[in-house]
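Hey, can you fold this one?
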Amino acid sequence: MRDHGRTDRTLALLARPGAFDVLHAMYSRGGTATFAQITAEARRATALLRSLAAEDFVNSAGCGSLDFEPGAQTAFNLTAKGEAVAGHLIRLQELITNRPACRGGHRSAL
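Sure. Predicted structure:
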């Protein structure tokens, strides 16, 4: 597959509602979170974890193929790729949240 297609697929995955929440749940806990912790922060966690695992953002030693919903205490880990992407997304969110407002109440452009 061409890199452009892979990039488009990755960006589409990261834009899905809840994808950031799944990554954030693990990143904010040092890279590992249980399924219960993830589901407390993200809707549709099983489907998102399945997609994130297919793109090598997350893995789990005790979960297998994710054909079924994992147990509450099943641990999920960010891969090196997942940790890098999650870190970038969190820094981007912080930058957007903390940027100063311009006159007229609009935020400045990045």
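Strands lie at 32-34, 58-59, 75-78. Let me know if you want another pass with a different chain boundary.
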